[in-house]
Amino acid sequence: MLFITDTGPSILRDSGCLHHTPIFSHFPFSFFKFILFTVTVILCSSSMAGIWTLAALLLLSLSISTAAKQTYIVHMKHNTKPDSFPTHHDWYTASLQSLASTPDSLLYTYTNAFDGFAASLSDEEVELLKQSQSVVGVYEDTLYSLHTTRTPAFLGLNTDLGPLDGRHALDINQASNDVIVGVLDTGIWPESKSFSDSGMPEIPTRWKGECESGPDFSPKLCNKKLIGARYFSKGYNMASSGRGYLKKPKEIESPRDRDGHGTHTASTAAGSQVANASLLGYASGTARGMATHARVASYKVCWTSGCFGSDILAGMDRAIADGVDVLSLSLGGGSAPYYRDTIAIGAFTAMERGIFVSCSAGNSGPSIASLANVAPWIMTVGAGTLDRDFPAYAVMGNKKRFAGVSLYSGVGMGGKPVGLVYNKGGNSTSNLCMPGSLEPKLVRGKVVICDRGINPRVEKGAVVRDAGGVGMILANTAESGEELVADSHLLPAVAVGRKIGDVIREYVKSDPNPTAVLSFEGTVLNVRPSPVVAAFSSRGPNLVTREILKPDLIGPGVNILAAWSETIGPTGLETDTRKTEFNIMSGTKHYTIKACLCKNLSVNVGGSGS
């Protein structure tokens, strides 16, 4: 048996060889030291069995060392680089090699958003780095998560609505021509009509970005509207594949959006006008972004398991170098000290260089102190409602009619009531309609009431459908209150608030033969009151700096129609095979462009200045 101690494996202490290797007594035990031990004993040993044993131990140590490594972001003192190194990249590489790290341990070198690098390190290598006078700090990689047609009119940005703050619509368009919006998200669907460059002038000569190629993405797909498309995946690959990053990628590595979130966010900010846009007939009209003449540069930093801080920082670093005017991030990871917050660090440098940074507040409301992206140099944006709704109705067997919302677009239920059931299943989660919780013999041919919460809203409908149900009433609980979010369900479904939900639940319990029928009314406008803060929009206070109020403002974030990736259905479920060019989503996606337009208007069309 092998025992690892501070002075080395006990099997070596009995070999006699250690008396001739005094170097071992001067360093803590490490993987590098273990190799020296192994080589020494192989040279000293005359036993073939001993050689094979130590060879096996060496292979085992390699496996253990590999598994123990993970990604860290290392903050360096920029000005302490020795003159013997031509670049900081050379310096960082040499620093890692001095720790016996392999050449591919260095993942990213940051030069614009941050002074330092990201690397795959063992716990021991981290401790050794912290001892260096040139290292400010070493931080474990953080996993962040992802957080329209009526919106421009609602915010007063439509070109046919007259002046904005005394400016003519032509001035607004001219001001936005040279605004470059960098969107850090899940990538881009370049074929979308929302990224058409029809009528746009040439790309600003100051732009240094480019469109990268990938197995499913050609740089030729970019144009004068979509002027940049890059991807950053080393942090994601390191976390998902260990030392084999880039050897066995979990998904296709390219700028293409296979989630939909990035395309939706980018087109919300700066999408071109697209006539006759809708989600399967809902919200029909002209879709457009906040600034139709602004340019879009996409930086894919989010993958199937989320958005890693090392990739986000690399995207921000590159976007600053490329020359963006605005950085837009609809992602976050809760509150943390600014020096530990990847987004806050990158945003600070961007702010210093005159780049406007806007981030979503998060979708963890209505809980208090649930905010993300609270740094004072970031515009933090919450979500509010629009003056548009998608009404649907549930009529009970007692003739009571209840209003809700839905984006269901398939064949309706007809006018004949069917049985209504609640909490009918083989386990305690049937009220939530969790996968596998419903008994087909109890719900087949019936409408099922599902409590909102825990699993995705659209997944609940899929569970009901798979169990044989013909419809669903998605009823809010105390946590979600009266907030209603419309979804493109896979079966007839109506979402209702908590008060109505309680009434329907009581009806099912009290009536010996409860029934219901569902109907759908399309799109209605001029809903009042609006805007109203969405229940899911994260709330303050700001736990990092309580003196600074956050979020800074709210923007339309409920039921927003925008461009979509055609590799995924509107619900995002793998079982949803429907394809659509546009989708309606909710979340704290933010509206940075109005502030940026005001800034550009004052510079470009504001006269002679002070």
Automatic annotation (TrEMBL):
Biased composition (Basic and acidic residues): 248-262
Record's keyword terms, sorted: Apoplast, Hydrolase, Membrane, Protease, Serine protease, Signal, Transmembrane, Transmembrane helix
Localisation: Secreted, Extracellular space, Apoplast
Domain Peptidase S8/S53: 177-588
Gene Ontology CC annotation, any one: apoplast
InterPro entries to which the protein is assigned, alphabetical: PA_domain, Peptidase_S8/S53_dom, Peptidase_S8/S53_dom_sf, Peptidases_S8_3, S8pro/Inhibitor_I9, S8pro/Inhibitor_I9_sf, SBT
GO biological process, one term: proteolysis
Domain PA: 429-502
Inhibitor I9 domain span: 71-147
Molecular function terms from GO: serine-type endopeptidase activity
Residues spanning the membrane: 34-60
Renumbered residue ranges of the record's region Disordered: 247-268
Purpose of the protein: Required for arbuscular mycorrhiza (AM) development during AM symbiosis with AM fungi (e.g. Glomeromycota intraradices).
Family named by the database record: Belongs to the peptidase S8 family.
PANTHER family per the UniProt record, alphabetical: PROPROTEIN CONVERTASE SUBTILISIN/KEXIN (PTHR10795)
Protein name: Subtilase family protein
Organism whose genome encodes this protein: Salix udensis
